[in-house]
């Protein structure tokens, strides 16, 4: 297999028509409990299947007990776990610990967008004495599985020894780096917050405040808002659109994939395979330290909801602030009534029956293609709604004229950070967003126990309008004092807060 799986169809057909094949081993794949994303896992399954590995795919949101029970019943040779959202990382550690408790010894493969070699080495491998290997993408899966299940015992032993030594080195280096890093107390970090000139700032007042529901969105409108570069990345074709179509290495296959995608996109729209819905809201707001208070109206007399954000605690160079999203909202002790927005959109309504149709026909290629296009349409809808908010609902950029390239480059005023992502990495805040906008009632979108959004082709987040608002990351380095403060603000125990903040704490 080449790095791309965009041209898997000939391989799949060859496998279907082969008179005989010899299995190289049996591999169980599953997206862990609470997570609904499986495009990458499905591609891995197809690649492995086309290379004569028997694949048992348990689907999404699979509890540890089910994974391990099925692994025992099918006597699999390898277990592969996948996940996209950060709570999946903890669930993978739990599965590894359960494998250890139950006496498993088979290899455990780890993959997914939020996983990493470092997390695998630092958190997952110590929980399981069997082999644990992080698989970067589908193009590496065959080599890894072949090394683990090949007939040459020396190759297998040397491979596992190299992995263990590499992971041990990662842990040592990690410990060394952490010992040399410098962090601020939460009080010090707050004292070094971003200082905006609120005295000369006039917050734009929304032309249409409150909650707005859009349940008849024309998919045709969204086509011009699609960012195609992540589409090719999801198929592991590296390159920026449209240049990738002329790339010397992957250009031919990228063009084939693009042609297929455009053809299916036309059917999605013409035959109404998918429906898209959105709900957005704009509310009076002020900041209270690292919280953002939303009010019922502009009088600011009745608190509607309180949102909780995190602040960077790593010591910064002189002149660089320790950022928190609350810094972009006028403080409550100022005379200003500021505003903040929220949104939730999906383009995945109705996808299940069409995916099931393809899968029933053993058409993995088109099943994956449909899911990846639904994801692109959801992101396009998020872009479209943000533009509509800027130009119409909030109306602070009525004269904005940006083409798709400029939109993708974020050449507009304002940001839309999403709970679970770098600026606001704690996922339970999505629960507040759902309650604020009554998302499930208005759109049918729902949250899993790990706060993943379903349908998978969904996007949600916050709107900030301050002209100096930029994206940033709350990186690893959250200290115990902020964990305790966050727990108090959220009404959680410190243990629960630490669980949800694990990926951004200093020793994570």
Give the helix/strand class.
Answer: alpha/beta
- The coarse silhouette is globular
Mean pLDDT: 94
Poorly predicted tracts of residues: 1-7, 9-19
Radius of gyration: 24 Å
Largest sheet descriptor: 6 strands, antiparallel
Task: Tell me what portion of residues adopts beta-strand conformation.
Answer: 5-15%
Number of strands: 13
Ends apart, CA distance between termini = 35 Å
Helical fraction equals 40-55%
Number of helices: 18
Overview of the structural elements:
The protein has helices at residues 9-17, 39-49, 64-74, 87-101, 117-124, 138-149, 153-180, 186-191, 219-222, 229-234, 251-270, 351-360, 364-393, 404-408, 429-437, 439-443, 480-490, 494-500; strands at 26-31, 54-57, 78-82, 108-111, 132-134, 210-214, 275-288, 291-295, 303-308, 338-349, 446-447, 453-454, 458-463. With 508 residues, the protein is α/β, with parallel strands linked by helices. The longest helix has 30 residues, at 364-393. The radius of gyration is 24 Å and the shape is globular.
Describe the secondary structure blueprint for this structure.
Layout: H1 9-17, E1 26-31, H2 39-49, E2 54-57, H3 64-74, E3 78-82, H4 87-101, E4 108-111, H5 117-124, E5 132-134, H6 138-149, H7 153-180, H8 186-191, E6 210-214, H9 219-222, H10 229-234, H11 251-270, E7 275-288, E8 291-295, E9 303-308, E10 338-349, H12 351-360, H13 364-393, H14 404-408, H15 429-437, H16 439-443, E11 446-447, E12 453-454, E13 458-463, H17 480-490, H18 494-500
Parallel strand pairs: 1-2, 1-3, 3-4, 4-5
Antiparallel strand pairs: 6-7, 7-8, 7-10, 8-9, 10-13, 11-12
